[in-house]
Amino acid sequence: MFSELGRVIETLGKERGIEKDIVIKAVEQAFLVTARKKFGLQGEYETRYNDGDDDIEIFQYKNVVDEVRDTIVEITLADAQELDEDVEIGDQIGIKIENPNFSRVDVQTARQIIFQKVRDAEREILFAEYKHKEGELITGIARRYERGNIVVDLGKADAVLSRREVIPGENFKPGDRIQAFLTEVVMTNRGPEIRLSRTTPLFLVKLFEIEVPEIQDGTIEIKSAAREPGQRAKIAVISVDKDIDPVGACVGMKGSRVQNVVNELQGEKIDIVKWSDDVDTFARAALAPSEITNIQIDHEDHTMDVVVEEDQLSLAIGRRGQNVRLAAMLSGYKINIISKSKLQEKIQKSVENLLQVPSITDTYAQVLVQSGFMAVGDVAAADAEQLVDLLEITEEQANEMISATTEAISGGEIQLQAEDEEELVSASAVPAYHGLINKNESDDDSQDKFSDAERRLREELAAFKLK
Question: Is the domain of 171 the same as that of 267?
């Protein structure tokens, strides 16, 4: 039927890296399909590979009956007893088809099925092998471009490095060595698809694991990482050994360790900061090299409001907001930044705005601004109970203040400055006021307070947290 079947099975197993038993099973299934097509689909068949004879044995099972109505599935008792004298009515007997007389088309069909089954088994093996490598660095050779994506030869399989996962400015040519992070392996109709990335923060983490032995042995841990591929990155590290400086260990002698990582990332600048469980301390480190005046942290909403001196504002924000974006990703907090002088200016304007209402004194205006009432409209929309608690006035006085403010706005008696109107428009898309800035312990007179409406910069980024 199939000349040198044993040699074919052996060759397929070795060439494709598949166990012999899997190939034999594929051969048996292929001839089972062929037998059904040749001898009748309604029949019941079994195929077995005979290693000794190097051949496929095909058995057809029939029910033993008194009267045969379908020769494909039934056999008379007399005919059955010629094969097995102990058989009885109602039994099922297996009959070996001695000479199936498969045509060339039948054998070709069997071949196609065999190779398809082998390919399927090969795909499953590759999928299982590379699935276990998810989250690891992998190295291959660039072979070609397909729709802008780079096909990387890993030896046993090809991987895909999407154009979105290539560091900006990189240009790989066929034959170039590529090191990347294996993000995921998914099974598709064409087999397993191995997806790589050189832009994920985890690629940065894995490179440091290779370069820094202390990370490999667990002495130093990378707590979080953030990067804008090809431009700048930040990582936060901590040491379980108080005698080892985690930042110095990652930098290496004369910067050798971090430089090796920088070279692999095409010159990407890397800031290494020391992790701290104290969010205030860590935020100051994450926003380096700027110096922070005050920080107000809202742990529930995961936001922090940062005040800096005017000369530190550009450093805190960074080029095109890069520094604050990376700090936000690193800390997992949304960060709002404003300069101290701008904050004071906005607070003063808010106080002046509230003083337009006759019943609001300077003291009341200061307290209201400190509590988040930045304009007369906020007072008009307030509840009487809020004003009673804040200003320590009676409910009647509070209602009179609200009524007076509402009437003044309706009658056009209160005019907002043009720039204040702009501020109110820009603030309409941002969250509500969160509260006060922490009092600077080194300056007892500092009462800096501000709201989200005063932010010059809003950065809203999802936090990247390492497992």
Answer: no
Residue 144 bridge partners (DSSP): 151
Using one digit for the tens of pLDDT, what is the confidence trace for 43-80? 888 888 877 666 788 888 888 888 888 888 888 888 88
Query: In this structure, is residue 125 part of a structural domain?
Result: no
**Rounded Cα–Cα distance for residues 162 and 364 (Å):** 60
Give the pLDDT score at 4: 61
Confidence of residue 344 (pLDDT cuts 50, 70, 90): confident
CATH number, domain of 182, equals 2.40.50.140
Closest to 209 in 3D by CA, of 175, 170, 178, 235: 235
Residue range 240-253: mean pLDDT, rounded = 90
d(CA 272, CA 285): 9
Helix 340-354 with 418-427: angle, nearest 10 deg: 110
CA-based angle 196:197:203, to the nearest 5?
120
In a domain, 354, yes or no: yes
Share of the chain above pLDDT 90, in %: 20
- Reported as a pLDDT band with limits 50, 70 and 90, residue 328 is confident
* Cβ contact 50:31 at 8 Å: no
Q: Which of 339, 372, 396 is the last residue of a domain?
A: 339
Element (H, E) at 297: strand 292-298
Show the domain range for 150.
133-197
Return all residues near 119 (Cβ < 8 A) that are at least 6 apart: 191
Distance CA 264, CA 280 (A): 33
Q: Is the pTM of this model over 0.90?
A: no
Side chain identity at residue 415, one-letter code: Q
d(CA 323, CA 345): 25
Q: What is the 3-state secondary structure (H, E, C) of 305-338?
A: EEEECHHHHHHHHCHHHHHHHHHHHHHCCEEEEE
Task: Supply the DSSP symbol for 456.
Answer: S
pLDDT tens for 83-97 read 888 888 888 888 888
Which residues neighbour 355 within 8 Å (Cβ) at sequence distance 6 or greater? 362, 365
Q: Work out whether strand 137-146 and strand 158-161 pair parallel, antiparallel, or are unpaired.
A: unpaired
